[in-house]
Amino acid sequence: MKEIKEPTYWTSFEELHKDPSHLDGRTNEFADGADEVIKLEDMSGVSRRRFLALLGASAALAGTGCTNYRGHGKIVSWSKQPEGVVLGRPNFYASTCSGCEDACGVLVKTREGRPIKVDGNPEHPMNQGKICEKGQGSVLALYNPERIRKPMKSLGKDKGFQSLEWTQIDSEVQARLKALGTSRVAIVTNTVNSPSTARLLESYRSQFKADVFAYEQFSDSTRQKAWKLSHAQGSFPSIAWHKADLILGFESDFMSAGSERMKTVREIASRRSLDNGNHFTRIVLVEGDVSMTGANADIRHAISPVYHLDIVLGLLHEISVVRKLSDYGSNPSFLKLVSGMDLKSVSEKTGLDLASLTGLADDLVANRGKAIVHAGDLHSLNVHLAVNLLNAALGNQKLYETKQSKVQFFPVHSTQELKALSDALLAGIYSVVIHLDCNPVYDLPADLKYAEALGKVSTVITFAQLPSETTHLSHYVLPDNHDFESWGDYQNKEGIISLQQPVISAIYDTRQAEGCLLSWSTAKPYTQDLWHDFVRNRWEKEFYPGLKLSADFVSFWNSCLHDGVFQFAYKPSQLSPIIVEQTVSSVQKSQSTGFTLILRPSYSVGDGRFASNGWLQEMSHPISRVTWDNYVAVAPAVARKLKISSEDNVSIKVGEEKMILPALVQPGLNENTLVVEIGYGRQNSGVVATGVGFNANRFLKSSGGLSAHIYDGVELNKAVGSYTLASIQEHHQIDLKGPGILLEKLTDPHLRREIIRENSLTAHQADPQWLAKRQEFKKKHVFSIYEEEQKYPDVKWAMSIDQNKCNGCGICVVACSSENNIPVVGKDQIKRGRTMHWLRIDRYYSGKAETPKISFQPMLCQHCDNAPCENVCPVGATTHSPEGLNDMAYNRCVGTRYCANNCPYKVRRFNFYDFRSNFAKGHYYNEPMDLAMNPEVSVRSRGVMEKCSFCVQRIMDSRQEAKKAKVQFNGLGVTTACQDACPTEAIQFGNVNQPETNVAKAREHELNYHVLEELNVKPNVTYLARLRNSREEVKS
Amino acid sequence: MSLDFSKPIPLFEGKVSLSQLDDAIAAPMEKPDNTRFLMAMGVCSILLAIGGASLFQLLRYGTGSWGLNSPVFWGWAIVNFVFWVGIGHAGTLISAILFLMRQKWRNSIARFAEAMTIFAVITALTFPLLHTGRPWLAHYLLPYPNERAMWVNFRSPLLWDVFAVSTYFTVSLVFWYVGLIPDFATMRDRTKHKIKKFVYSLFSLGWRHSNRHWQHYERTYLILAGLATPLVLSVHSIVSFDFAVSLIPGWHTTIFPPYFVAGAIFSGFAMVVTVLVVVRVVYKLEHIITLDTLERMNKVIMATGLMVGYAYGMEFFIAWYSGVEAEQYVFLNRAFGPYAWAYWIMITCNVVIPQLFWFRQVRRSVGLMFVISIFVNIGMWFERFVITVTSLHRDFLPSSWGYYSPTIWDVGLYIGSFGVFFTGVVLFARFMPVIAMAELKAVAPGAQPTHHHGGHHE
Predict the structure, then answer these.
(1) b/e code A738-752 from CB counts within 10 Å (16+ = b)
(2) What are phi and psi of B139, to 5 degrees?
């Protein structure tokens, strides 16, 4: 080696003397510490640079991260951090939703102690991780600015209320309860599902001579009554829907209403799955209304509910008498009942053609023991009884699951049956009435004169979260806790108890009604723990010992709270056989005239109890897509005859009650049927609910019509004027005018444009490649002159939507609103076409207006590879991510709206206003609505474009976890809010580059297609074409 | 009637001397009729006040005040923008292209047309600015260096618009001003009023009518005319790209650039006729802005009207020929759908009514041409409305179809835009020479050396 020469020049003494540290420094450009990366583990010796870097960073953090944006309010740090709470990380708690009889288990997502999102509890055996739109909306209900915040006492009728302290309320009420004398206490409540609450109310029965009236506007009480008559014991069992090869419904909307909805739709969807070897169930619906279930049916017959009894009896006649497949034929009273009900005369009477009727009978016979005949909740006792006979005759009881029979702690009355209560009130038997968060003044039929009856009562106490018609007439209005602030246990099925635990302490000066009642009856001062201790003690003393568990009670209790649900071994009773004689003798046939009016629960706000929820009001009716209103649905033929079109006023007369309502021409509606939704026209119920729609409860009669909610002999007339309905989809499209060449284009445009792809199951089985071939053809002819710029080697996000499973319920829409802080825009803005939903469910009618096929298509940002929105944005506010997402930079958006114009799917949403400020004078800006916002998602300002982000916050969260765990991020396990909410698993999301994901598999399926593929925008949302298991094609 | 086509049509009626020309053109500035001026300004102020109120509403509450919705995200604001930009086209066409083609009849109307261009473009520019959701962030549309290294999107036609329209405005302004310099000098020489003298001196940039000045002036004017010529074609082509580059049926059309340019000239000429017909009577300039000139303008109107009509027909043909379902529907829907009324107003005003100009009597009737020119402008406004709104309101997915109708705030801002435009026009007519004196004198009888004495020019 050549020797290195000594330098002949030097620049410093250190260099001259070859100081090692100096020589080292010559090769290191930056001095020690100049370019170091801050590593927390090396932080023991803090250098000056590190110190300054840290100082700067902490100052920046303190200055930006910790300031209160609005510049007011106090910051109180945790002197002791609560166990398990990490700032910025969500916590999940299991609890129970008490929104309806189903009492689904929920999983509440909280951030820094505030609930921000609800989904179903996956551990719960009934709802299995899914909840309905009302459950999704319960977050908004918790933070509703109009919740009653303090106990109030009336200053006299219509004179307003005065706020009081609880202690004063306690002493006044307790004094009243002590001084009852001979009078009694009436407790009015909705269904009591909770064994502990039941125990409490029992104690009131004995201690204060209280009578408990549990009622529901809509429930399966008629079905239960029919069950009692035909089976003598037990209650109507659950149905194993997934075992049914044939489902025949009569006015039955089992997919959107009725008990165990989440279980029902899940099980039915499992039989609409394409991986299931196409063993599709067949759904046949006979209905007057056009229900969501009807839209999903393979075969739908529009027949007035008046004739449903005849059809069932005709089928019974055919099966028992003609085909002699049951032993009913030997029963003389049965023969009398079905005499003259041969299929031909039934067909003539009902208008259901003979071929269909015979087909129905054939189907039922072919599927004996594997079919379910189901009558809707609204139907009369007669139809339920006849359906029981039919099911028994066919041996369909095999599909009943007695293991999950219903539990009722108090008999649930229908609203009509509360006549006893109002009569007693009028007679002065009760001096104290306690309403447990129910609204009988609104719910009960007007002829019960409940409001008047309350006037005779000296003390009306109403526990309520929100102002209502009933609180308006009460002497004491006591604010109740929301579900998320409450303790409780719920049992509506044998063997399952679902626990409710608070996930936030009471936001206002409210009390849980049960706790308050308990404090009155036990004369103990109210504490938040009072009711908790009661429930817990009851479990410890009465429930736990019987289980004979090895675990001690505390760990048992805690694990129950953790899981939210406890399933205990339970020996189901034997299914009692049908008592033919009694059933047959209970059936009464009747004649009817005029129009038949069906009063059905609103799809979004139920019987009206959810009317204060903006998310639900804005969720559209699945068929008509009308929001914020109810209306009279009339058949196209009737509209032609009366010369009315949608939005014209009509008058309806039911008995003496006459009302003017707007009409909506509903394709597919039976022409003798009118449908009005109940749940609207609320009064004194706050800005969201009051005055929305019309109060159809006025049509209810305590004597009922054909059933409690079906009335015949209704008169319909054209009235003066019109009324604008806020519909998300144009509803004028049925009244087509213009030259033939235009009408041709307007006939089923969604089919002509291949937006909706459907086929019959048999046609598909004959040629499974029918769609794939077409797609292949399109792909061949659609090409780009540009090379594909972007490759997605690692993760590529995509979504697949199975239109066989999607039933159009719209739960995903509410879940999306909750997850993504989507504002409520209000009726006036929907009318102007400014809905903000990132995800919508498009509805298309095909075929004739009298017998349309109805299709649903969830539509959201398609995250196109060649996104047409991206290249037109002048400021680059919407760009493509390396993982195929179409991103929005809200801060950069100027609001030219060009992107929205250029979006062929019209999924972009523009903040034309600051909608939160525009809606009801800034209602949703009021405290504490800011707590309801998801902190991971920006709240968009006026003038900014927004759209579906594929829940990018969840993707980022998952990536962050992968980074922390130092693993390659593969995108597995990321779910979107809509996917989580979808009760039928129709929505699948994931990384298509991972072949094992459902999305990747769906993309390979022969029924996979893109909407508007020919535009070559390369959408990343794909759809699976729907197959209809219809009979017409089976024969051909 | 006998017409002698062998002789050029005289540019002036009767015999006018050069000094008479100056006097006639300077008269409105030197002996103004203040009553009429104030009345005109009063009307303009009312229009401006309506516009101001609409502007306040817009800025205070947002674009939600307008009738916009999903799917019609662009409404009157964009319609008005294209409408005013179109009107701005006549000026440059007349001053630049006709200048290069040595069309001398242009000289009596060029100044006014150019002024209208300036005011029309100013009016037009307010709309794209105000129509955005957050107009206070409009500077995001400019490619300026910033600390976040954020750049504009050069692929967006809206950005091309920003450049095209601003370039057009700049060039038009310079062109107009350069032409004004000799006239400002003339006015400076004529006036005795101290302030006026100062102002005119300032703007005439020391012009002394010297031979050298004239040489430079002629050169500059020619170069500017050359520069402005492609802009006439480019601006409206690029405005049409806003639509043509998108993929919405009814917008995604290759015929748009020439069709828009023809339409712009059509509407621009019509607006010039509308205004000039009034101005020449009020300012007694009938002998300078002659009926012959107006007749020529009317011929251009008719020719461009036919082009536009051809484009309307061709759009239908291509839609049918393309076989694209959505596109076929959009055009049928234009003619027979919910907006058929707008479509047929457009056809009537743009295609049918200008056919009257085939008749010489109509072309030369001041009253009729005034009415027809107004119809053409109504028709051209509706053309933009039809293109913008009918294409959007029913595009690909029938689920998202909607209907658009404007609110009073849309209308208010449109009325206000007339206020802006006419305020400019009225102020211009009051304080500046409405006809280019220097250019006019250059083509006046006897102004140029000729073989004959007196007699005909050239």
Answers:
(1) beeebeebbebbbbb
(2) -65, -15
Least confident of A6-15, A370-379, A952-961, A1014-1023: A6-15
Structure pTM? 0.89
Burial A35-56 (b: 16+ CB within 10 A, else e): eeeeeeeeeeeeeeebeeeeee
pLDDT for residue A57:
77
The pLDDT-based confidence of A1035 (bands split at 50, 70, 90) is very low
| The two three-digit tokens of residue A418, written as one number | 């509360």
Task: Give residue A743's pLDDT band: very low, low, confident or very high (50, 70, 90).
Answer: confident
User: Residue A832: CB partners within 8 Å, gap ≥ 6?
Assistant: B67, B69
Higher pLDDT, A45 or A338: A338
Q: Which element (helix H / strand E) includes A240?
A: none
| Nearest one of B389, B448, B425, B421 to B48, comparing CA atoms | B421
B64 interaction partners in chain A (CB closer than 8 Å) = 829, 834, 912-913, 918, 942
pLDDT reading at A434 higher than 90: yes
Rounded Cα distance, A608 and A602, in Å: 8
Residues of A (997-1026) whose Cβ lies below 8 Å from B = 1011-1012, 1015, 1017
* Model pLDDT for residues A355-371, shown as the tens digit of each residue: 999 999 999 999 999 99
What fold, for A592-727?
A: Barwin-like endoglucanases (2.40.40)
Does the domain formed by A237-404 have CATH 3.40.440.10?
no
Q: Do A902 and B336 touch (CB under 8 A)?
A: no
Average pLDDT over residues A692-705: 90
What is the number of H-type helices and E-type strands within chain A? 40, 40
Contact B68 A897 (CB under 8 A): yes
| pLDDT confidence of residue A410 | 83
Quickly name the fold that domain A740-753+764-783+793-1033 has.
Alpha-Beta Plaits (3.30.70)
A contact test, residue of B251, B397, B401, B408 with most A CBs within 10 A? B397
Determine the distance in angstroms separating the CA of A197 from the nearest CA of chain B, rounded to an integer: 47
Banded pLDDT at B22 (limits 50, 70, 90): confident
- Break chain B into its structural domains and give their ranges: 18-138+153-169+232-442
At residue A86, the pLDDT reads 82
**Residue A419, Cα to own-chain centre: how many angstroms?**
32
Q: Is A738 at the interface with chain B, CB within 8 A?
A: yes
pLDDT at B458 over 50: no
d(CA B196, CA A1031): 92
CA separation for the pair A775, B325 (Å, rounded): 17
Give the residue extent of every domain in chain A: 13-65, 237-404, 592-727, 740-753+764-783+793-1033
Confidence of residue A588 (pLDDT cuts 50, 70, 90): confident
- Tell me which residue has tokens 């947002």: B62
Provide mean pLDDT across the span A6-19. 68
**pLDDT per position as a tens digit, B29-70:** 888 888 989 999 999 999 999 999 999 999 999 999 999 998
Q: Per this entry, what is the length of chain A?
A: 1036
- 8 A C-beta contact, residue A361 and residue A206: no
Question: Is pLDDT at A5 greater than 70 in this prediction?
Answer: no
Contact A253, A266 (CB under 8 A): no
Token pair of B189, please? Answer: 């020489």
Question: Please, which residues have CB within 8 angstroms of residue A1003's CB and are 6 or more apart in sequence?
Answer: A798, A800, A992, A1022
Provide the strand spans (E) within A30-171.
90-96, 105-111, 114-120, 152-154, 161-163
A726's enclosing H/E stretch is strand A726-727
Task: Check CB contact under 8 Å for B336 and A738.
Answer: yes
